[in-house]
Amino acid sequence: MRALVYHGPGRRSWEDVPDPRVVDATDAVVRVDAVTICGTDLHILKGDVPAVEPGRILGHEAVGTVTVTGSAVGTVKEGDRVLVSCITACGRCRYCRTGAYGQCLGGGGWILGHRVDGAQAEYVRVPFADTSTHPLPDGVTDEAALMLADILPTAYEVGVLNGRVRPGDTVVVVGAGPIGLAAITTARLLTPSHIVAVDPVPARLEAAERLGADMLVGADDDPRTAVADLTGGLGADVAIEAVGVPETFELCTRLVRPGGHVANAGVHGAPATLHLEDLWIRNVTITTGLVDTYSTPTLLDMVAAGRLDPAAFITHRFGLQQMDEGYRTFSDSRTTGALKVVLARN
């Protein structure tokens, strides 16, 4: 089969590799029908995730069709259409028993495209298939389901829920890329009074407005002044960091009100300064997190009911064999306007 292989920082190729097979009784092999590229994949290519070794197939977001299962798999079968979660769960360890699947001790967590071969390929081996895939209702499209593999549960759990967004809050989302836009979309479920999007790229701010932001702060604006004017000088109740660079995290700590929450959802590859000398006296809560995907079934129900339209995040579509073009488009998003790209089997 063909797959996108990481060969060290700055090096990748779409090449021939051996087909995956069932290794453990809990495995399934899934034919990839649609896959996307994540900002985390770009971090890997920059060398920000040293645990990813050269030779690894990248990708952790896919929708596909089960082709074969191990003898211990009971909830999915050959021919089933499934969402492959970005998080793999053994279902038995202490963390899995409390829904903290991202911290799985039994061989799961974020492993696809990280510690085992991932989903940017024609086929993928999915460990612990019973607890790491979600059968899809007939009315949910591949494209809509694909957005539930990572960005929507990540934004909802790590941004909105960890940030404790409540009705009437002022929520600031710093970074209007895919995670930031998903945070805007899912924050609306909790009826905040204002959602402020901060991003220097006009196309992303336009997308933020389309998806529910009611104040836009661009490259020529001062975010601190804008938020202070909106809140009578108080600051945001919740500031969600959705970029993953030191400057945006530190900005969030300056935008939040005393007693407020900073929810970091971005993937960081460099240290950020934590100004405890300013923050300790302001009762600011800071949370970080890897998504657990415990919310995926709920989000899937909302998509099936027409309450969420995840396909709105998709800006570019390619064939699966156009993986290189998909990466070029996604990595140059300032020029191309790419938010999420979908690569589908022809």
Automatic annotation (TrEMBL):
It comes from the Bacteria. Its cofactor is Zn(2+). Keywords: Metal-binding, Oxidoreductase, Zinc. SMART domains: PKS_ER. Residues 10-343 form the Enoyl reductase (ER) domain. PROSITE patterns: ADH_ZINC. One of its GO terms (molecular function) is zinc ion binding. Belongs to the zinc-containing alcohol dehydrogenase family. This is Alcohol dehydrogenase catalytic domain-containing protein. It comes from Nonomuraea phyllanthi.
